[in-house]
Design brief:
This protein has helices spanning 14-28, 45-52, 66-75, 97-106, 177-182, 195-205, 231-248, 251-274, 279-295, 300-308, 323-329, and strands at residues 2-10, 33-38, 57-60, 80-86, 90-92, 110-119, 134-136, 142-144, 147-148, 151-152, 163-164, 172-176, 209-220. The protein is 40% helix and 20% strand. It is α/β, with parallel strands linked by helices. The N and C termini lie far apart (45 Å). Helix 6 (195-205) runs parallel beside helix 7 (231-248), helix 7 runs antiparallel to helix 8 (251-274) and helix 7 packs parallel to helix 9. 44% of the residues are buried. The strands form three sheets. Strands 1, 2, 3, 4, 5, 6, 11, 12 and 13 form a nine-stranded mixed sheet that branches. A two-stranded antiparallel ribbon has the order 7-8.
Amino acid sequence: MDKLAIVILNWNGEKMLRQYLPSVLKYSCEEAVVYVADNASTDNSVPMLKENFPECRLILLEKNWGFADGYNKALARIEAEYYLLLNSDIEVTPHWLTPLLSYMDGHADVAACQPKLLSMADRDSFEYAGACGGFLDRYGYPFCRGRIFETVEHDSGQYDTPADIFWATGAALLVRACIYNKVGGLDGRFFAHNEEIDLCWRLRIRGHRIVCIPESKVYHVGGGTLPKSNPMKTFLNFRNNLTMLYKCLPDDELHLVMCVRWLLDYVAAWEMLILKRSWSDFKAVCRARRAFKRWKADFEADRKAIQQSRVLKNIPEQRRFMLLWQYYAKGRRHYSDLP
């Protein structure tokens, strides 16, 4: 069994693999085995990998399973102590794995961790998708050390200490294989978006810690598959976020939070239509609400099992405030400004 398996999920990402896979192989092969799991790409990804990167192990999936189930299907074929889920648009740095593995080996209560995620476009700034570790507000809105909504901070070393976090970015997520498999991995029904937050929430409910190790740093392009304004991304984010709340919130919080979210989601939809003039995003939010209502019953058994596994009711990294109020009414744009 391998100590660490780095698994890059690919779908029509030949250009990204050509550009960023060399850094992964150069700075990782002494400590890890590198896999590329291909989600039935129709571009030249697989022939290119075979020709140019023969040292990289290939897992060929029969169709595009999406991010969540694509990883589940690929990881089921790998035996390792640790999995590291890595996006294809990540550039890693020398010795990036050493602090991650050292921390995990020394802290048995930690189920998963992430490195510091910096922007490829502005290498002195954090990257939107995970920055220096993720948190959640009372109503399911994610934010990070280094990023709140669209405000991304410059990295001046302000978050350079390891910290317990609520969720680790799926762009570079190191997780104990035995725990990943025990909790059922990523929820494949999500297809993409919010799946890593859902996984980490389930881990925290069971009492496992999630940590950011900023001594390790990587650079991320971000938005490599779906651009930020894509209506499908809007749909998946809203639908999956609501589903995650339904699965994981304690019984005494569920009704209130879901009622408030009904209001906030439709406010967001009208804001997209009136201020941003995006009819497609408006429709995507409305469609996401309907989709959640239709498939909510499919998650009743999941909710019951998750609540029965609960060790922690109040998770410290899920903050009790409303992030929208803090950001827009109070003007608190940086993580360090938050209560």
